[in-house]
């Protein structure tokens, strides 16, 4: 029996299989000769007879009757389709053609009654694929624009005689290793669009494909090579595709397809098609976008022209994401409201344009075309960016809107927004979410219609409180769709406001698709020398005259790493390292970079230090000093360095802050200065500059904020193989944790945000805000009997210290208890109000009108200021301004930067947490992974086990043993990895020695049992009989029940929770272990509760 190897040449492996599949998808094969006959010449690209044939079937309606097109109307349509303005450029010609296809062409007809009628005729029937002609041809030779030579696309797809699809096919195996044949096909497509080539063919083409057996990409007119996309179908599975591919061709089609081919090729194809074939990459793309019904949907809904980006077609995640959104929007709740949800597409994958595609699709959906759209964001620059995309992308209608129309679409004030909501008819309105604070208080700001769709950009950022609930109150039945690149994770899901995740596109998938650049992480550690003895002496000296409370307050504020990180010597050391690294590794590529700093003062110091190096130009972009930014404990806006920089750079230059920022970012996007942008919080979200190639991080980041920040350098650029993250702050554990968390979220995302596991943990929020009147009255009761409630001095004196002599002769402050009770009451009222302002039912409750809510907020501000005054009067706090400059100088003097130590390796960010076989890794990767697990273990034990002290103690000791064991192995990276990996699995399993099996499925009870063991001691526990141990396990379960009840009954009031726990537990625990141990156990339970009950 003889065996024949597969023919891998282009015609046999790509071109004929593509034609075979397209015929099975519903296209009609037209030989090159027949196609040329219909064209008339190689200069002509239309199949005029086909176009005429289709137009003769078109009908229009007049006074209840259908009429065919007159010869004059048909001629007019043919003229308009033939006369495309190529003189204005290929893109302009293509856009003209697209509009004529999308909108139809209006013709003039003279009717039998003598009247003139102007119907609009659809060249393409968008709703019925069978009403169109689908022709596919090969080797379509086209004469160049100058007539000097010809180009021959491998396959051209004609719809109603118009060449809407051009395909280049390639063999899979390249001429040499590392060469992509599909890249060559893309290059061919781009070459053929040049002015001197065959642009008259591409003036019609809407989809361009480059395919081979193993790779397939698609683009559109003038799409740069890096943006050609792959297709992953989320609805047609492999079995369905296999069935389509292996369906036998009609004999006539098969014979036509093979006619004129060499005998050997004919025989090979017949043998190939006679046996089952597996789907290939080119099959997936062809079936995904060129099935007739799919192609009509794609061209109608998923093509847009943008003034900046050019012509765009949707990527597969946008296509299927919008399908999912439309399906959700068509649903109505029992109360008549429209359903919403979350679109999670990783940062950098085109969410802004996804919004535009959605808005276009709404226009064309019969069930949704009457809907109005409100686009909500939280920043002016994002509003401007989105508005620009909508204006030029066709979201306002089928034609591109004017700039004036776009400006008119923005709500200028809260009152303007209120009028648009209640009385307006604008199809699209843009607004900042902050405007709802004012708008929602106006009577006209209400619209119960379900035909309103609210699109929220980055919904995790500004939609957890009052403004969001006011928006919900104004638009109770609207659909709310949140677009985010970083949805809230499991621990944050109580803040979720939008419903389930309807579609997900993760960082991992985006990198695999080459939609974004992969990220490479590198750690660089600044080595410091600190004179700790000098620092301690200074603190003791400077705080000698302070009270104990003030001294503690001061040390707590300035102690720890925060002050050290801002030391000028440290910043100068890092600045030199940044400048040298950028100058050597990034600048030669023509790329730019960002420096993320912890404060405005750090940003300005970095600017000065970078300027001193002379190796890299830089610019600072921060918010004005009168606004707070970051998490500084001390208001740094008043610092002389910050104020001086702002005055010199902005005020003295007589430039508006927004103009300075716009001009700086425009320059950053070009080839000149600045080369580095120094930022604090600004531009760590929503800043998309492809030239941005490296992010230098000297700032603590975690969770979705971290993922947002690192994505600043993942945009595609010709010179960028990967975005680089250089870390001076040690964020690798947080980065690893965040990437793993989003991987986990991706696996369960189709179920949306699972809020079921919170059921029973908290009572309805209405039981919390109903307490507000009583809490408010209690707060005022501290000031009963004042002669005047308009005199702030009387409030002050009610809380100020009054020292009296006690029975023992010692003086004490008789108002200390009063102040502490006032502080507690204020905290309770503030927490309750905060919860209420995040509740929709609070704003809908008529017992709490806006006037009362405003009074609550005003009183909270007033009493908070009284608390500050009382704490100063009682010397319970300290004026940081008197000490911060001295402390800063001390740190600058006593912290010496020695060198920046480079880490041993780098990490590919999207591969963090990815499952692979470690035996296949090179040694450096194995060592990196072992170190990463060790770091992750430390973080888990120190932070995640904080609410389980026993587990933290046991696993901490086990980790120390594991590290000692690893060090004893000397240099065996794979053994190190296996040791730490096994330890991590044990930690995840949470199997602890000394914990009864019956508690294994009850993590909270485990923690309480651990508290019992810690209090009683290991020796005492070892001496107990099995039945005594069993009673203690039962006690742990009982404690769990008591705590859950206390949390549920007191909602978010921590003081009441703790009080109820103590009252209920002390007698129960006392019966088993005695009073002293009972007190210790109960206090440990309270401490665990403070650290937070995490849903299991």
From TrEMBL:
PROSITE patterns: HELICASE_ATP_BIND_1 (PS51192). The keyword Translocase does not apply. InterPro entries: Helicase_ATP-bd, HsdR_RecA-like_helicase_dom_2, P-loop_NTPase, Restrct_endonuc_type1_HsdR_N, Restrct_endonuc_typeI_HsdR, SWI2_SNF2, Type-I_R_enzyme_R_subunit. Residues 332-505 form the Helicase ATP-binding domain. Gene3D superfamilies: 3.90.1570.50, P-loop containing nucleotide triphosphate hydrolases. CDD domains: HsdR_N, SF2_C_EcoR124I-like. GO terms for biological process: DNA restriction-modification system. It catalyses: Endonucleolytic cleavage of DNA to give random double-stranded fragments with terminal 5'-phosphates, ATP is simultaneously hydrolyzed. GO terms for molecular function: ATP binding; DNA binding; type I site-specific deoxyribonuclease activity. Keywords: ATP-binding, DNA-binding, Endonuclease, Hydrolase, Nuclease, Nucleotide-binding, Restriction system. Its EC number is 3.1.21.3. It holds the Pfam family T1R_D3-like. Subunit R is required for both nuclease and ATPase activities, but not for modification. The type I restriction/modification system is composed of three polypeptides R, M and S. PANTHER family: TYPE I RESTRICTION ENZYME HINDI ENDONUCLEASE SUBUNIT, TYPE I SITE-SPECIFIC DEOXYRIBONUCLEASE PROTEIN SUBUNIT M AND R. NCBIfam families: hsdR. Belongs to the HsdR family. This is Type I restriction enzyme endonuclease subunit. It comes from Xanthomonas cerealis pv. cerealis.
């Amino acid at each position: 029996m003889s065996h024949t190897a597969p023919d891998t040449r282009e015609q046999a492996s790509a071109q004929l299989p593509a034609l075979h599949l397209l015929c099975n998808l519903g296209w009609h094969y037209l030989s090159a000769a027949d196609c040329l006959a219909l064209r008339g010449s190689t200069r002509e690209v239309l199949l005029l007879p086909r176009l005429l044939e289709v137009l003769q079937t078109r009908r229009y309606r007049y006074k209840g009757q259908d009429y065919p097109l007159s010869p004059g109307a048909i001629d007019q349509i043919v003229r308009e389709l033939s006369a495309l303005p190529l003189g204005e450029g290929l893109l302009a010609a293509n856009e003209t053609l697209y509009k004529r296809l999308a909108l139809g062409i209006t013709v003039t007809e003279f009717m039998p009654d003598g009247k003139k009628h102007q119907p609009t005729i659809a060249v393409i029937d968008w709703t019925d694929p069978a009403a169109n002609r689908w022709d596919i041809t090969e080797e379509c030779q086209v004469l160049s624009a100058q007539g000097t030579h010809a180009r021959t696309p491998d396959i051209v797809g004609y719809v109603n005689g118009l060449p809407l699809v051009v395909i280049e096919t390639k063999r899979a195996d390249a001429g040499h290793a590392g060469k992509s044949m599909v890249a060559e096909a893309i290059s061919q497509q781009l070459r053929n669009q040049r002015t001197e080539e065959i642009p008259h063919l591409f003036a019609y083409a809407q989809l361009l494909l480059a395919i081979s057996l193993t790779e397939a990409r698609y683009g559109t007119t003038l799409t740069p090579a890096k943006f050609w996309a792959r297709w992953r179908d989320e609805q047609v599975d492999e079995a369905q595709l296999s069935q389509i591919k292996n369906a036998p061709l009609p004999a006539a089609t098969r014979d036509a397809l093979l006619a004129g081919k060499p005998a050997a090729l004919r025989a090979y194809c017949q043998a190939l098609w006679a046996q089952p074939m597996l789907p290939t990459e080119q099959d997936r793309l062809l079936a995904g976008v060129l099935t007739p019904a799919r192609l009509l949907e794609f061209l109608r809904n998923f093509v847009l022209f943008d003034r900046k980006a050019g012509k765009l077609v949707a990527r597969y995640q946008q296509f299927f994401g919008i399908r999912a959104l439309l399906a959700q929007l068509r649903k109505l709740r029992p109360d008549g409201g429209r359903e919403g949800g979350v679109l999670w597409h990783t940062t950098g994958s085109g969410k802004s344009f996804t919004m535009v595609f959605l808005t276009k699709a709404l226009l064309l959906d019969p069930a949704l075309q009457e809907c109005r759209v409100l686009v909500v964001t939280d920043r002016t620059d994002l509003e401007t960016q989105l508005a620009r995309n909508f204006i030029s992308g066709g979201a306002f209608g089928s034609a591109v809107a004017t700039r004036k129309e776009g400006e008119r679409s923005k709500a200028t004030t809260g009152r303007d927004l209120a009028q648009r909501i209640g009385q307006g008819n604008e199809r699209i309105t843009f607004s900042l979410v902050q405007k709802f604070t004012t708008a929602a208080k106006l009577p006209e700001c209400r619209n119960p219609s379900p035909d309103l769709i609210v699109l929220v950009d980055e919904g995790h950022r500004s939609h957890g409180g009052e403004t969001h609930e006011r928006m919900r109150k104004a638009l109770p039945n609207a659909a709310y769709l949140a677009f985010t690149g970083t949805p809230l994770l499991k621990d944050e899901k109580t803040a979720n406001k939008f419903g389930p995740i309807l579609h997900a596109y993760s960082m991992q998938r985006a990198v695999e698709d080459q939609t974004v650049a992969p990220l490479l992480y590198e750690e660089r550690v600044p080595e410091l020398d600190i004179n700790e003895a000098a620092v301690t002496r200074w603190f003791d000296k400077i705080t000698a005259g302070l009270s104990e409370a003030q001294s503690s307050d001061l040390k707590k504020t300035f102690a720890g790493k925060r002050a050290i990180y801002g030391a000028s010597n440290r910043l100068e050391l890092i600045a030199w390292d940044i400048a040298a690294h950028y100058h050597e590794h990034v600048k030669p590529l023509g790329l730019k970079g960002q420096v993320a700093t912890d404060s405005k003062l750090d940003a300005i110091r970095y600017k000065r230090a970078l300027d001193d190096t002379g190796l890299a130009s830089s610019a600072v972009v921060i918010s004005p000093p009168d606004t707070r930014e970051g998490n500084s404990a001390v208001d740094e806006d008043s610092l002389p360095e910050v104020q001086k920089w702002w005055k010199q750079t902005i005020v003295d230059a007589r430039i508006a802050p927004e103009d300075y920022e716009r001009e700086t970012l425009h320059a950053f996007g070009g080839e000149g200065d600045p080369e580095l942008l120094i930022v604090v919080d600004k531009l760590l979200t929503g800043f998309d500059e492809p030239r941005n190639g490296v992010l230098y991080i000297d700032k603590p980041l975690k969770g979705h904020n971290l993922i947002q920040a690192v994505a600043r350098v993942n945009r595609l650029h010709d010179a960028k193989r990967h975005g680089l993250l250089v870390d001076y702050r040690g964020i690798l554990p947080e980065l690893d944790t965040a990437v793993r968390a989003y991987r986990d979220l991706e696996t369960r995302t189709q179920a949306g945000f699972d809020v079921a596991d919170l059921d029973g943990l908290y009572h309805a929020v209405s039981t919390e805000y109903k307490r507000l009147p009583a809490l408010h009255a209690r707060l005022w009761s501290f000031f009963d009997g004042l002669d005047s409630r308009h005199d702030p001095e009387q409030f002050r004196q009610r809380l100020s210290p009054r020292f009296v002599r006690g029975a023992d002769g010692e003086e004490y402050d008789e108002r200390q208890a009063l102040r502490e009770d006032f502080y507690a009451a204020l905290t309770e009222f503030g927490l309750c109000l905060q919860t209420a302002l995040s509740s929709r039912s609070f704003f809908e409750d008529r017992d709490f009108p806006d006037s009362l809510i405003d009074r609550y907020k005003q009183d909270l501000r007033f009493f908070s200021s009284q608390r500050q005054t009382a704490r100063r009067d009682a010397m319970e706090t300290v004026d940081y301004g008197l000490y911060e400059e001295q402390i800063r100088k001390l740190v600058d003097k006593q912290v010496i930067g020695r060198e920046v130590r480079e880490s041993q390796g780098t990490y590919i960010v999207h591969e963090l947490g990815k499952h692979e076989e470690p035996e296949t890794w090179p040694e450096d990767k194995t060592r990196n992974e072992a170190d990463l697990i060790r770091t992750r273990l430390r973080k888990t034990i120190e932070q995640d086990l904080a609410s389980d002290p026993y587990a933290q103690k046991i696993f901490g000791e086990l980790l120390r043993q594991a590290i000692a064991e690893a060090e004893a192995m000397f240099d065996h990276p794979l053994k190190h990895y296996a040791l730490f990996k096994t330890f991590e699995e044990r930690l995840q399993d949470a199997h602890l020695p000394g914990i009864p099996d019956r508690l294994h499925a009850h993590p909270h009870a485990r923690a309480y049992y651990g508290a019992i063991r810690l209090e009683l001691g290991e020796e005492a526990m070892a001496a107990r009989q099995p039945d005594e141990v069993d009673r203690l396990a039962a006690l742990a379960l009982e404690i769990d029940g008591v705590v859950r009840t206390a949390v549920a009954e007191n909602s978010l009031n921590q003081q009441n929770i703790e009080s109820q726990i103590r009252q209920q537990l002390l007698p129960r625990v006392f019966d088993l272990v005695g009073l002293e141990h009972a007190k210790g156990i109960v206090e440990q339970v309270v401490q665990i509760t403070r650290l937070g009950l995490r849903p299991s």
